[in-house]
Specification:
Blueprint (H helix, E strand, L loop, with lengths): L10 H5 L5 H13 L1 H8 L13 E4 L6 E4 L4 E2 L1 H13 L3 E6 L6 E5 H17 L7 E5 L4 H13 L2 E4 L6 H11 L3 E5 L1 E4 L2 E4 L1 H10 L7 E5 L13 E3 H6 L10 E2 L3 E7 L7 E6 L1 H14 L7 E4 L6 H13 L3 E5 L10 H9 L3 E4 L1 H8 L16 E5 L5 H9 L8 E4 L33 E4 L5 E2 L3 E7 L9 E2 L3 H8 L7 E9 L5 E6 L3 E4 L2 E4 H9 L4 E11 L3 E10 L7 H14 L8 E4 L13 H8 L16 H12 L2
Parallel strand pairs: 4-17, 6-7, 6-8, 7-14, 8-11, 11-12, 16-17, 16-18, 18-19, 19-20, 30-31
Antiparallel strand pairs: 1-2, 3-13, 4-5, 9-10, 14-15, 15-24, 21-22, 21-23, 23-25, 25-26, 27-28, 29-30
This protein binds ligand 6R9.
Length: 649
């Protein structure tokens, strides 16, 4: 019997695939039952300088928590992404860069990329950057972002990429936390036909740093915009390169030496510096890229994420390059000059695989079929999504339009912390269900637990945990190992807690239901409510603030801020604008609130804890589901909030 809600593996994939369903189940079972042997084998996808003899050394026990993979092996990540391809594929395109303006593009071969990375790595050394130093990267989507990351990896420096949409304040916080003394930026970037200044932001951020002092700012000139310059501190990227030797031997690094830090939001406190190491991360990224995308060399792989996010790290840079593939790096946005751009780029460059976020799909879907009008799209053989749950309508639209009802969609669930895909279909192996991230990657043991950490069996719903380690797992929170233990291993003893809720159906497919903690997912970007609230209360007119997410057609979740002003402050339009701009300034445009509601009081328990559940229900217009409000210190607040909410219209 055919089930209309299940999309079987297309014939084209049955004939010619890396792995069919039986193959997946067999390999998955072996990866669990013979776990070490499986990972011992997988480590072989990399070139090691000194081969590892140890594979897995892990304890999830709170008292002695440690995660180490391939620990006695040595390697260099940039050599794995570049040097080892030179002999056989040196002239293949490593990066296909596509500019913001239509018609602009550039192909960079492995040989060219290797050459520029070597020069820049020497340039970093000439500025005094050493193995183990943290280097901040604040760049738009230009090839130099890849060069900068790989150059750090080449000399054993730890990169900390900060999304170029973040404000000077947010950038300063990350530079302080990482303690970096060098930052790489551009004078400005181009996005959607506009130029976005970056160097000025860096100058402001440097002035705001409290813990670290920046010694050098390397500036890539990518627009004609004028750039403020501080002699002695600021270094022109082109001039720096011109002064270097072409040869830069790759540093021999331990498998467990840090590769990068990437900041991400959690439910409490400041963003955390998620730390990934070298051997395990690259092994896992490479493995997933090959199987999830059934990737074959020569294919053009377009992951549309920014390098400022983990998806950009793993699937724009590290995995495709480790696998000797061609990665497409797109500078622009999906709707510039108009909503047909994504399809036009696919056709113009004959792209094979397209991997984008549900929020982009929903934004395009809002335009009907216009985004694919006049496009052939025949080069595409596989689609992917990542970053947030995809609603079945958007899935089906993507499948029908971009996929021409022929391309499977791999809905990949994972996190900054997990390094690469964890729950995902594989195109030749997994019948698809729209909205489900389906089944686990090799070596991954997901489970659902109740509030007490009891493992639930069968078709059910609960908190998503992972029972055992995998090589791509984060190793610590930079500078705060206790926070790592507290955040991920303390809610449920002996398990990695993802912070997500999920449902498992009768076919053992997983359906992510969203965060169960106070983290919002706005257009696929993670934002902690605590972070937003602490930025808000730093405003001189604000006494108190509570932020919740609410369902938003395009963004998935929108930002809803309840704000109590200081006595004497006027809750008028001017103030609303000021508050809105304040969040943009403190964090960045991605933190722009969708709704600001003035709230003379907030619903609090007698112990003073804000009951967000109630605020979430009001924001979502679900007044009949407020639940028990009798434990509130002042239940009358609720009625006031509802009437203010309704007055917003
Ligand atoms: C890769 C990335 C992680 C959070 C994660 C979850 C949500 C990511 C998803 C998904 C449903 C998917 N998420 N992929 N939810 N289906 N396919 O996005 O990392 O920025 O750290 O976000 O995003 O809630 O916990 P990150």
């Amino acid at each position: 019997m055919s089930n209309p809600s299940v999309y079987p593996v297309p014939d084209t994939y049955l004939e010619n695939t890396l792995l069919d369903e039986e193959g997946y189940l067999e390999l998955y079972n072996r990866s669990i039952h013979d776990n070490e042997a499986f990972w011992r084998e997988q480590g072989q996808r990399l070139d090691w300088i000194k081969p590892y003899t140890q594979v897995k050394d892990v304890s999830y026990n709170k008292e002695d928590l440690h995660i180490r993979w391939y620990a006695d092996g040595t390697l260099n990540v940039s050599a794995n992404c570049l040097d080892r391809h030179l002999a056989e594929r040196g002239d293949d395109t490593a990066i296909l860069w596509v500019g913001d303006e239509p018609g602009q593009s550039r192909e960079i071969s492995y040989r060219e990329l290797h050459a520029e990375v070597s020069l820049f790595a020497n340039g970093l050394k000439s500025l005094g950057v050493k193995r183990g130093d943290v280097v901040t990267i604040y760049l738009p989507m230009i090839p130099q972002a890849a060069v900068a990351m790989l150059a750090c990896a080449r000399i054993g420096a730890i990169h900390s990429v900060v999304f170029a949409g973040f404000s000077p304040e947010a950038l300063a916080g990350r530079m302080d936390d990482g303690g970096s003394r060098v930052i790489i930026t551009a004078n400005a970037g181009r996005r959607g036909g506009r130029s976005v200044v970056l160097k000025q932001n860096v100058d402001k951020a440097i002035a705001l740093c409290k813990e670290t002092s920046i010694e050098n700012v390397v500036v890539v000139n990518c627009t004609d915009d004028e750039t403020p310059w501080q002699e002695g501190r600021d270094v022109d990227y082109g001039k720096l390169l011109a002064a270097q030797d072409a040869e830069c031997p790759a540093e021999e690094m331990g498998a467990e030496d840090p590769l990068f830090i990437l900041y991400t939001s959690g439910s409490t406190g400041k963003p955390k510096g998620v730390l990934h190491t070298s051997g395990g991360y690259l092994t896992y990224a490479s493995l997933t890229h090959q199987y999830v995308f059934d990737y074959r060399r020569g294919e053009k792989f377009w992951c549309a994420a920014d390098v400022g996010w983990i998806t950009g790290h793993s699937y724009v840079i590290y995995a495709p390059l480790a696998n000797g593939g061609t990665t497409v790096m797109y500078e622009g946005v999906p709707n510039y000059p108009d909503v047909r751009r994504v399809a036009q780029v696919v056709d113009e460059h004959q792209i094979d695989i397209l991997y984008i976020a549900p929020t982009a799909i929903r934004a395009l879907m809002a335009e009907g079929d216009k985004p694919v009008e006049g496009a052939s799209l025949e080069s595409l053989r596989l689609l992917g999504t990542v970053g947030e749950p995809i609603n079945p309508e958007a899935w089906k639209w993507y499948y029908r339009t971009f996929g021409r009802s022929q391309c499977p969609i791999v809905d990949t669930w994972w996190q900054t912390e997990t390094g690469a895909a964890m729950l995902t279909p594989m195109p030749g192996a997994t019948p698809l269900k729209p909205g489900s991230a389906t089944r686990p990657m090799f070596g991954i043991q997901p489970a659902l637990v109740d509030g007490e950490g009891n493992i639930l069996e069968g078709a059910t719903e609960g908190n998503l945990v992972i029972l055992d380690s995998w090589p791509g797992q984060m190793r610590t929170v930079f500078g705060d190992h206790q926070r790592f233990i507290d955040t991920y291993f303390s809610t449920f003893a002996g398990m990695y807690f993802t912070g997500d809720g999920a449902r498992r159906d009768e076919d053992n497919y997983y359906w992510i239901t969203g965060r169960v903690d106070d983290v919002l997912n706005v257009s696929g970007h993670r934002m902690g409510t605590a972070e937003l609230e602490s930025a808000l209360v730093a405003h001189p007119s604000i006494a108190e603030a509570a932020v919740v997410g609410f369902p938003h057609d395009i963004k998935g979740q929108g930002i809803y801020a309840y704000i109590t002003l200081n006595a004497g402050e006027e809750p008028n339009e001017e103030m609303r604008l000021a508050v809105r701009n304040w969040l943009r300034q403190e964090i960045g445009p991605i933190a722009t609130p969708d709704v600001i509601q003035w709230s003379p009081g907030l619903p609090k328990t007698r112990s003073g804890k804000i009951m967000r559940r109630i605020l979430r229900k009001i924001a979502a217009n679900e007044f009949d589901q407020l639940g028990d409000i009798s434990t509130l210190a002042d239940p009358a607040v609720v009625e006031q909030l509802i009437s203010n909410h309704n007055a917003l219209g």
